[in-house]
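Posted in: Structural Biology > Protein-Ligand Complexes

Title: Requesting predicted complex, fe (ii) ion in pocket

I'd be grateful if someone could produce the 3D structure tokens for the following input. Sequence and ligand are given below.
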Amino acid sequence: MPFTIAHVSDLHVSGFGDTLHDRARMTRRSARVAGAGEAAFETCWEEAGWRVLRARARKRGEIVLVDPDGYRHPVPPASAGGGVDPVERAASRACVLEARRSAVLASSPPEGGALAQMLDRTPENVNLRCLRAARVVAEADVDAVFLTGDCTDDGEGWELVETAFARFQERGRLFPIPGNHDLYLFPIASSARPRPTHASKRALWRDVAARCGLAVEPCGAWKRLIPEGDAIVVGLDSCARRQRAFFRQNGAIGPEQLAWLRELGKTPEWKDARHRVVLCHHHVVPLAVGFGKRAPTEIGMRLDDARAFGEALNDVGATIVMHGHRHVSERRQPAGHDFDLFAAPSLTLGCKSGDAPSFWRVEIDHRVHADRVRIPVEAVEQENDPGTEPPPPMAME
Ligand SMILES: [Fe+2]
Ligand SMILES: [Fe+2]
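-- Reply #1 --
Done. Output follows.
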């Protein structure tokens, strides 16, 4: 029986299921807790910690929506539908958002029918897409899940990732690494509150790694033997280096992890394993997104020490390298290297080629056999957030 891996990447889950990749649908809320000045308002609706407030006389009845954490959200205008009563529209907005919060979905994941109904209304919601995709992974009869980073969109929502793949995590068979979205900061504000910092993001990642039973070395790497697959797997942190500037998402494996990998390469546990698997988030070679198309720009995106990393992978004799980041699904053996290279697209946002979201189902025994498994996506129009214009595209895989 082969040992079977699901290589999954770039889930981009978030507090409300919105993503920096789709700014037209981002959930907008105040940067600070709304507290001050609330005496001027009266509560006219309240549920699950959400409140709709109406300003007392002097403010002409202004309606305000406040979430359970105390941040203000805009009330949809009447032109967006949902009736003439602003209180009703605000309450309806609260219900839609609450049902899609990562913490709510993680504590009580909806069953198949309910999930399909929610996806009908908001098919682009990444939190819902994550749950749907994880069910496809579970049905693919795999022994382990390798998650190659960007598990979250801005450091928020790890609990949903853990719930979605709980059956693997419980057996010590969920192997995540962090990506730039999990650890680095962005010039555009997401809906994550309080606003994340490098320290807060890294602390959350460390907690998740510990709950997955992974012992992260001081250099940022972890390793695990998988005897039933005659394999050893290594997870590297391609964001271990401090972010150089907030608008740069370049990664690096760094000299410490490369030295660690080379040392590991001398040990019997590495050399005796038939399959020597290395996971990292950033891509190691430029990836085109279709026939006749060039690889998209790598400015602010690339792995700065890809060449040194490639040499180290050759020297230690890695047999399989898996990464995410570019949201491209591809398998190749790069020129000059003998390892199988797997690039997994976003499991929720799809492949830059225009292909549906997918993951790699990889069987390892005396050979490596891989199939691309697509996630079915219904073509249903989503309600846009009211009053927002789609912004220009921005590279930030
Ligand atoms: Fe990324
Ligand atoms: Fe990504």
